[in-house]
Amino acid sequence: MNETFTLTNGVMIPAIGFGTWQIPDGDPVEHAVLSALRTGYRAIDTAAIYGNETGVGAAIRASGIPRKDIFLTTKVWNDDQGYESTLNAFDASQKKLGVNYLDLYLIHWPAVGRFFDYKAKNLETWRAMERLYKDGKVRAIGVCNFLPHHLEPLWEQAEIKPMVDQVELHPGNPADDVLTWCGAKGILVQAWSPMMRGHVFDYPVLAEIAAKHGRTIPQIVLRWVLEKNVNPLTKSVTPSRIADNFDVFSFRLDPEDHEKIKTLASVGRFGSDPDQAKF
Ligand SMILES: NC(=O)c1ccc[n+]([C@@H]2O[C@H](COP(=O)([O-])OP(=O)(O)OC[C@H]3O[C@@H](n4cnc5c(N)ncnc54)[C@H](OP(=O)(O)O)[C@@H]3O)[C@@H](O)[C@H]2O)c1
Question: CATH number, domain at 108?
């Protein structure tokens, strides 16, 4: 199992990312990100809307780890979609993070319920992403929460094609349609909420597989994500869990484990459906 994924432009991204959604700015996010960096994580995922970019940047500096060894992602929020507003949002994020480049910049949602013509708005936003990429301000660009029918129109018009799609993905929502579409185009899929927002503990089948391997349920789920060639983002504010979630490189699931996990595929989403979200 490679400990990195490689994007279509050759940029490498660590196999496991550390997510920061719902971790307040200041001490909480600084402690969590520092704990993750000390554990060995080298990819950190934040977003303008999380309101914690200042603390994420402070933790990176406090870690003493060279900037070039950390893969840093942030996202443009729906309010800022559009050409000039995306460029301004990028500058604001960069200032808060205190960095002179980003590794990955993502459109946070297609924002289907928000704009009269979301496809046109996404394309305008994308033109700004392309500008930032060409100017060397960001090493890779992509989207989040885009389903194949949101990706298709963007893909057709994009001069620089999206390199990443970050979606809700876990045993209850394996997102096979996204994996198939992105797989064919070489887009790396990232999994958000791999722990089903804590619900991974509700399913005996996951407990059985964990007992068989002498592993924890979160470790089983993260292996499952990795073995689908998907890049998981795991979030915890608890140092022991942060360490547990990183210790997944010395075992593999068996084919029958994958078959058993498929039985959870009808559970469904815990987050918003990109086609129904109104924000
Ligand atoms: N692009 C998007 O629209 C989008 C949407 C949602 C999330 N994301 C990204 O994806 C990241 C992950 O998603 P998420 O935050 O929803 O996370 P998640 O992985 O589904 O769930 C996090 C929850 O699981 C708990 N947990 C984590 N590891 C555990 C372990 N080993 N044992 C027991 N409990 C454990 C955490 O508890 P404690 O923290 O209390 O330890 C937290 O309550 C986010 O932080 C964010 O960076 C992106």
Answer: 3.20.20.100
Residue nearest ligand 1's atom 17 by CA: 193
- Establish if 261 belongs to a structural domain: no
Domain interval for residue 52: 11-198+231-250
Does residue 231 have its Cβ closer than 6 Å to ligand 1?
A: no
> Which residues are catalytic, by number?
50
Assigned domain for 34 exists:
yes
Single pTM value for the model: 0.98
- In this structure, which residue's CA is closest to atom 32 in ligand 1? 241
Q: What is the Å distance from ligand 1's center to 23 Cα?
A: 10
CB 257 within 8 A of CB 209: yes
Query: Is residue 274 domain-resident?
Result: no
Q: How confident is the model over 238-278, as pLDDT tens digits?
A: 999 999 999 999 999 999 999 999 999 999 999 999 999 99
Structurally, the chain folds into a number of domains equal to 1
